[in-house]
Design a protein that fits this description.
Layout lengths: L8 H10 L3 H19 L3 E4 L5 H4 L4 E5 L8 H18 L11 E4 L1 H5 L11 H4 L2 E3 L2 H9 L3 E4 L4 H4 L15 H8 L4 E7 L8 E2 L2 H11 L6 E2 L20 E4 L5 H5 L9 H25 L7 H10 L11 H9 L3 H7 L5 H30 L1
Helix pairs in contact: 2-14, 9-12, 14-15, 15-16
């Protein structure tokens, strides 16, 4: 029996509301993101759950992963791709797209502002199945039997800085609260080597607060990452760390609630304590996986993959935007704007706004023509 089942009416309406586009996802994942995951990062998805994949992906389920990188959330994007690829494989060769896939809870700023859309591709996050992180959205997804990836450290995880690598930050209590309320299993995920996607970047709290309030970005690192701002083509691009993802046996949140002091009141205190117990459990799993981790960049393997690749040009992330733009059907003018140094970022943002405005006007004209014909 397939692990990927037809959507119920409730899930279909949920999909429509959150904006997931299975056709768009299939194209950009298969034609662009596949190279980044399989050749550039040489990413591995390891199943240590003791269960077959089809059971792991049955849902509902929560995947709780450590978060890092000090750049775009490549660690989560690649995990999403690997799970997508595995689920698609389970469906068989006749399936070209997935109506149901892993859903990721992301910082609402990513969706509402759009400045961190990969390569300025409009609505990337929602179209690939991401959902603004909120308690209600989290509950809606789990109640619809979805697979949900959460980074319980939140923005503090990806922005914690290189000096705090592999040190898990405090967990959000919403994972514990909903996992217990809905009795949903939680799969801890250890993400290895993502700390080196942009090493030697650091988080200055005053600067990050200013960036979040006035530039409307989740954070902006200080350090080597400043070089990313040279032009749009290098914006948010990572180093070729060899990424490894290990999915551990599932746990029940009720188990962690029994380990805290039952006399603690109100319930929110128990949730916070249980969140800390869960954080320590995942920290222990992460420490064990670090001891078995492959070399950070595995340069010998990278060289071997490069020699056998038909995509040699794209081992330079400067050209990634071309591949993603072609897959997403983005006009070439945006790809050209991304190449300009210094002015590339504001120029690419301006071009995207103009393209979106043109698309909006076209939609209005089509609607008027349709109403006239009626």
């Amino acid at each position: 029996m397939s692990a990927v089942v037809d959507l119920s009416p409730d899930i279909k309406s949920d999909k429509s509301r959150f904006g997931y586009d299975p056709d768009f996802t299939s194209v950009v994942y298969d034609r662009a993101l596949s190279f980044v995951a399989e050749e550039y990062f040489r990413a591995e998805l390891i199943n240590k759950t003791g269960r077959p994949w089809k059971e792991v992906f049955r849902g509902p389920a929560i995947f709780s992963a450590n978060h890092s990188g000090m750049t775009l959330s490549w660690d989560n994007i690649i995990f999403d791709y690997l799970v997508y690829s595995e689920m698609k494989h389970l469906e068989g060769p006749r399936i070209s797209r997935l109506e149901r896939k892993l859903r990721r809870l992301v910082d609402p700023l990513l969706i509402s502002v759009g400045r961190a859309d990969p390569f300025f591709i409009s609505d990337w996050w929602t179209r690939t199945g991401c959902v603004p992180a909120s308690f209600d959205n989290f509950r809606t997804l789990l109640s619809s039997s979805e697979l949900v990836l959460v980074s319980p450290e939140g923005v503090a995880g990806i922005a914690k800085g290189f000096s705090k690598r592999y040190s898990l930050q405090p967990f959000s209590s919403s994972l514990v609260a909903l996992g217990n309320e809905l009795d949903v299993e939680v799969y801890p995920v250890s993400v290895i080597n993502a700390e080196y996607l942009r090493p030697f970047n650091y988080n200055v709290k005053i600067w990050s607060s200013f960036v979040r309030q006035h530039i409307k970005l989740s954070f902006m690192p200080v350090g080597l990452g400043a070089s990313q701002l040279i032009c749009g083509a290098t914006y948010l691009t990572p180093f070729p760390a060899k990424l490894r993802y290990v999915i551990h046996p599932p746990i029940r949140i009720s188990h962690y609630l029994t380990t805290v002091h039952q006399e603690l009141k109100p319930k929110i205190d128990q949730n916070r304590r249980a969140s800390e117990v869960l954080r320590r459990h995942q920290q222990g799993l992460l420490n064990e996986e670090r001891e078995q981790a492959p070399p950070i960049y595995s340069l010998g393997e990278l060289a071997q993959v490069f020699r056998s690749s038909r995509n040699k040009r794209f081992f330079d992330p400067f050209f990634w935007h071309e591949r993603f733009h072609r897959a997403a059907g983005v006009p070439k003018v945006l790809s050209l704007a991304c190449k300009f140094p210094i002015i590339g970022l504001p120029l690419a943002a301006w071009v995207r706004r103009r393209l979106e405005q043109g698309a909006g006007r076209s939609t209005i004209v089509q609607a008027k023509q349709s109403s006239t014909s009626l």
